[in-house]
Design brief:
Largest sheet: 4 strands, mixed
CATH topology of the largest domain: Neuraminidase
Structural class: alpha+beta
CATH class of the largest domain: Mainly Beta
Strand content: 15-25%
CATH architecture of the largest domain: 6 Propeller
Strand order of the largest sheet: 14-9-8-17
Number of strands: 35
Helix content: 25-40%
Number of domains: 4
Distance between the termini: 98 Å
CATH superfamily of the largest domain: DNA gyrase/topoisomerase IV, subunit A, C-terminal
Oligomer: single chain
Radius of gyration: 40 Å
Length: 750
């Protein structure tokens, strides 16, 4: 008998799907990306909330955690949100709740937290089992009307309940509280704003729908308003472009004041720091600047903060101006930062896109109108239902004796009432449920008064629903009403960030003024070890180097100078001479101070002369005149100035004459006026000399009156009176060098 193995139905074989792996991965990743974009990272333009934030607020409302009620444990709130609405980790829900309660993170906190909810130093909040929370007045503005069919609802993740798609939103929360988020392939970064200014902008749009972004800024929205205050130093033109395009950045500085200590001494007190900067990290950063001697004007930093921020900065010397000290620290530390603006949001249809200020406010107003109309229709239905009941009750009062007779003697009073007075089931039930004491004359008068009031309200709502103008007027009235909570006259609504222009202060000159001016000699060895010896080195032969190393560059300088280093790849590097290592040892490797590959050589090392000019040239025979000021760059990566080509840079000469002499590998010399070279900040330059093969060997700048001279390997100088024989036009081939020319075919020994 042959054994037969049968695969049961629903086994592994039935679950195998024959599908192209690339298509399967692409489809699944696209679904994941869309989920992250729409359900996690980007806020809705209408209420400014992400799904998790919306779910937390709605769950807290369902728990009746209103401002006037007692707070509940955050663990209870997190459990309700996770169990009913948000099927994700409890920590992510708690982090969201905590952020909505932090007054240094939210311009208008939506959660009133009790307990340790973290601080501006960056300390973590207490565990959710210790903290308590309830809604704030601002949160109630977002939720107002949610029970009146103001917004759509959708099933929760398990289908057992419903959650709102969007909140009614009584004020422009998206811009008021801002938002940040990173999705797949896109991100959002929206700074907080002043709600009163946003409402003024909305009212302006209602009055003049054609108002431009510039009009909104001139008459309402001054700019961002950060929870931690600070000074915004971004230009008006830059902010206008940001608000028009939805992309840009905002420069924000700490707010500081100068405190006089007497006898010419003072200290700086910082009371507001930039948004999203941790105070403890900022203090540590400033201390490191002092320790590493990168902030020579700053003497000490202390954190004297209690409930309010108070950072004390002491200058190195009483002679240091406070403005100069702060400008230097703004460049070196997070006392100034740049908040990136990217108004990337989901529109009413759930489509992501970048919007400008006017588009965002317009979308909010459209949402408020929809909410208004839906609430009005909901109220109208309630009124119609009540009027229907009142009509039946009034009929009963007009025929009270007959109604009493039917109720007392008929076997089926409800049916008899319907037939006798042409009533509906609801009206008949209302009459039968009426108590005897409500049959009084005064009660009838009260019903007639209620009927008249409701009829008047119904007519008003009906007229409003038929008029666009009336609807927009009510939208504006509702926004004005919210000013009682978030208006500029309230403690919560008062503007915190101020605007100022950054002072034009030459901090580098101030820093140089603090450096003692002394002569030094910069010593750079062949293997790249650099040091600075005090005074002048008269006899280089006495200098000592590591075994196998020797002198490459010897540059007289002063401690206040800037040292420029020209590499063969065409980059310039800048070092401050006062920061160079001393000459007690062999110095330090230059390549640890700058990003220079071992394969890249050094062409020249010299002291920067403000206003000076130099001739740069590559081995390929191209060059130009460079203003030395264009070479300054204190970045480790340096500054790319000369496009040196595959053969690299060769020449860096100070322009101290009116003629340029060049000689190629072929031994031909060409002399032409230096005026034929263009002056450029960077580039490849123009052709200096033409070669059939080889390239540029050397170059020399000289003055016509002094003549052209060369120096041989032994150091002897020879003046060439016949240099005019080699005079020609730039890019010419030149003539062979005369007899007696140095054998290395150069003007100077290398």
């Amino acid at each position: 008998m042959t054994d037969v193995t049968l695969t049961p139905p629903g086994g592994p074989a039935d679950r195998i799907i024959d599908e192209d792996l690339r298509e399967a991965l692409s489809r699944r990743y696209l679904a994941y990306a869309l989920s992250v974009i729409t359900d996690r990272a980007l806020p809705d333009v209408r209420d400014g909330l992400k799904p998790v934030q919306r779910r937390v607020l709605y769950a807290m409302r369902e728990m009746r955690l209103n401002p006037e009620n007692a707070a509940r444990k955050c663990a209870k709130v997190v459990g309700e949100v996770m169990g009913g609405y948000h099927p994700h980790g409890d920590q992510s829900i708690y982090d969201t709740l905590v952020r909505m309660a932090q007054d240094f993170a939210q311009r208008y906190p939506l959660v009133d937290g009790q307990g340790n909810f973290g601080n501006i130093d960056g300390d973590n909040p207490a565990a959710m089992r210790y903290t308590e929370a309830k809604l704030t007045e601002a949160a109630t503005l977002l939720l107002d009307g949610i029970d009146e069919d103001a917004v759509d609802f959708k099933p929760t993740y398990d289908g057992q309940d419903e959650e709102p798609v969007v909140l009614p939103t009584g004020f422009p929360n998206l811009l008021a509280n801002g938002a940040t988020g990173i999705a797949v392939g896109m991100a959002t970064s929206i700074p907080p704003h002043n709600a009163a200014e946003l409402i003024d902008a909305c009212l302006l749009l209602l009055e003049n729908p054609d108002a431009s972004t510039e009009d909104l800024m001139n008459k309402a929205v001054q700019g961002p308003d950060f929870p931690t205050g600070g000074v915004i130093v971004e230009s008006r033109a830059s902010m206008l472009e940001t608000y028009e395009t939805g992309r840009g950045g905002i420069r924000l500085r700490a707010f500081w004041q100068k405190e006089d200590l007497g006898q010419g001494k003072y200290q700086i007190v910082v009371t507001q720091i930039p948004y999203q900067v941790k105070k403890a990290d900022l203090v540590e950063q400033l201390a490191e600047l002092i320790e590493n001697k990168k902030a020579p004007l700053l003497g000490d930093v202390r954190d004297e903060s209690a409930e309010d921020v108070r950072l004390v900065l002491e200058p190195k010397s009483r002679n240091v101006e406070a403005e100069v000290l702060m400008e230097s620290l703004f460049k070196l530390s997070d006392l100034e930062n740049r908040f990136s603006v990217n108004l990337n949001v989901l529109d009413a249809r759930g489509t992501p896109g970048v919007m400008g200020l006017k588009q965002v406010l317009r979308a909010f107003l459209d949402h408020r109108r929809v909410v208004l109309v839906r609430r009005a229709r909901h109220r109208l239905a309630k009124i119609e239902a009540r009027l229907h009941i009142l009509d039946g009750l009034l009929i009963a009062y007009l025929n009270l004796d007959e109604v009493i007779r039917i109720v007392r003697y008929e076997d089926e009073p409800k049916q008899k009432l319907i037939e006798a007075f042409d009533l509906s089931d609801l009206q008949a039930d209302a009459i039968l449920n009426t108590r005897l004491r409500q049959l009084a004359r005064l009660e009838e008068m009260e019903l007639r008064r209620e009927h008249a009031d409701l009829a008047e309200e119904r007519d008003g709502i009906t007229a409003m629903l038929a008029s666009d103008k009336a609807q927009w007027k009510l939208v504006g009235a509702g926004l004005k009403h919210t000013l009682s909570i978030v208006g500029a006259n309230t403690t919560l609504g008062k503007r915190r960030s101020i605007f100022a222009d950054a002072p034009d202060i030459d901090t580098e000159a101030a820093l140089e003024a603090m450096i003692v001016r002394e002569p030094i000699t910069v010593i750079l060895s062949e293997r790249g070890w650099i040091r600075a010896a005090k005074g002048r080195v008269e006899d280089p032969s006495e200098l000592k180097f590591k075994e196998g190393d020797k002198l490459e560059f010897l540059v007289p300088a002063e401690t206040t100078d800037k040292l420029l280093i020209f590499a063969s790849d065409g980059r310039f590097f800048t070092l401050a001479c006062d920061k160079l290592p001393g000459a007690r040892g062999h110095g330090e490797p230059l390549r640890l101070m700058i990003d220079l590959d071992d394969k890249v050589g050094l062409v020249d090392v010299f002291v920067h002369r403000p206003g000076g000019r130099r001739v740069l040239a590559s081995k390929e025979g191209y060059g130009f005149i460079l203003p030395e000021d264009e070479a300054i760059a204190f970045r480790r990566a340096g500054k790319q100035v000369l496009n040196a080509g595959s053969k690299g840079a060769l020449v860096s000469l100070p322009l101290v004459g009116d003629h340029l002499a060049v000689i190629g590998d072929n031994g031909k010399i060409l002399v032409f006026p230096a005026a034929e070279l263009p002056e450029m900040p960077r580039g490849k330059g123009v052709k200096l000399q033409t070669y059939r093969e080889g390239g540029l060997r050397d170059a020399l700048v000289f003055d016509e009156t002094a003549g052209m001279s060369t120096v041989d390997a032994s150091g002897r100088t020879r003046l060439w009176d016949n240099w005019r024989e080699f005079l020609g036009k730039r890019a010419g081939a030149g003539k062979l060098a005369p007899k007696g020319w140095p054998a290395n075919k150069r003007f100077r020994p290398k």
